Amino acid sequence: MADFTLGIEEEFQIVDPATRDLRSHITEMIDEGRMILGEQVKPEMHQSMIEVGTGICRNIQEARADVINLRRTVGGLAERNGLRIAAASTHPFANWKDQKITPHEHYEALINEMQFLAHSLLIFGMHVHVGIDDREARIHLMNEVRYFLPHLLALSGSSPFWIGVKTGLKSYRSEVFKKFPRTDIPDYFRSDSEFENYVSLLLKTGCIDKPKKIWWDIRPHPDFPTLEIRICDIPSKVDEVIALAALIQAILAKLYKLYRQNMGWRIYHRALIQENKWRAVRWGLDGKLIDFGKQKEVPVRDLIHELLDFVDDVVDELDSRKEIEYIYTILENGTSADRQLRTFAATGSLEAVVDQLIAETSEGITG
Questions:
Q1: What pLDDT, in 10s, does the model give residues 240-295?
Q2: What DSSP string describes 141-186?
Q3: Which of 184, 179, 220, 218 is nearest to 199 (CA)?
Q4: Most CB contacts within 10 A, which of 59, 168, 218, 275?
C-alpha cells in the first residue's frame, strides 16, 4: 500500500536581529517550544538551530497548514527571546567555530565519532517524508526516484554563501554534508532484503550503531513506513516548501502507478546521477542537466517542465495542482539562492541578505 501521506521537517537558523549573526539560544527556547508543540520541535547539534516537523498529513493542504503553524509558532517564540528565525541552508557569514554545541549525549557521541566534520556541519535542511507501507515498493521507488533528485535540488537551492564568502555554488550545503560518510545518492538495491542485509552488515561490523546514521539523499526511514527525501536545501518561503513537497509526492505517486502496472522508470547508475547532482549544486536552475536517454545536455528548466508534464496525470488525484503550479513561479523568479545573490549584488551587504531571509521566512504565515 501507498497512501502518500506527507511529513515535512525544517531546520531553522536562530538569528540575532541586531548583528544578523547566528545566536546559540536553543536551550532557552526549547522548553517553552515543547510546551506549545510537544515533540514537533526539537534541538539540533548546534544551539543556533531549531528543528520542527509536521504531523502525518493526509494531503498537501494539511501539510501547508502545519508548516505555517510551525513557522508562526517558532518565529513567535524567537521574537519573545529577542531573536528571529531564518530559512536557508547556510548562514551568509556565520562561522561554525563560534557556535555552541547542544549538551546531549547523542551529539557528544557524534562529535567523538566525526570530530572536526561534526563541528563544521553548520547547515540547515528540509526533509520530506512520503508514506509508502509496501517495503518492496519503497526500495523500487527509491531506485527510480534517484534520477529526479538533482531536479529537486536545483529547485531548492538556498546556500550560495559560506562564512562570508560567495561560493559560486547554489547549494554549498550539499558540499559540506558530503564530507560525512554514507551521504549523497544511494546505490541501487535489487530488493528490500538486499537493503536490509546491507544495513545489518553495517550494524554487525560496527560501522554504525543505528540505521539513522545512513544519511543518503533519499532513504527508507528506519522508524516510519516512509521514503524520506533529504536532498533539498530548505527553501526560504512557505510556498516553495509546499510546492516542492507536492512535487515530491506527485513523482512518487506517478512512479508507484507505473510500478503497479508492471512498468517503470529507467534505473541509472549512481555515478551518472552524481554528475547531475554536481550540476544542480553548481548552477541550480541556470545550468544544464544530462538527459541520459538522449545523451545530451538539456537546460534544467526544460527538464523540470518535462517532469511537470510527466506527473500531470496524478496531480488532480492528489488534489495538489494549485500547490505544484508554484513550481512555475520558482522557474520564473529563481530560488532563494538566486534571490540572495541578487540582493548581495545590489547592496554588497550580507546583512541585507539575512534581513531578506528573515522576511521571506515569515512571508505568508501571519493571521
A1: 999 999 999 999 999 999 999 998 888 999 999 999 999 999 999 999 999 998 99
A2: HHHHHGGGHHHHHHHH--B-EETTEE-S-SBHHHHHHTTSSS-SSP
A3: 220
A4: 218
CB 255 within 8 A of CB 145: yes
CA angle, residues 42, 236, 280, in degrees to nearest 5: 105
Under 8 Å between Cβ of 270 and 150: no
Q: Judge contact between 75 and 362, C-beta under 8 A.
A: yes
Give the length of the chain.
367
Rounded distance between C-alpha atoms, residue 266 and residue 310, angstroms = 14
What sign results for the dihedral spanned by CA atoms 234, 239, 244, 248?
positive
d(CA 204, CA 149): 30
291 DSSP β-pair partners: 296
Residue 279 has phi, psi (to 5 degrees) of -65, -40
In this predicted model, what pLDDT tens digit does every residue of 86-117 receive, in sequence order?
999 999 999 988 777 776 777 777 778 778 77
Cell of residue 142, nine digits: 527509491
- What separation in angstroms does the CA of 136 have from each of 3, 221, 257? 15, 13, 14
SS3 state at 234: coil
CA angle 205, 210, 214 (to 5 degrees): 90
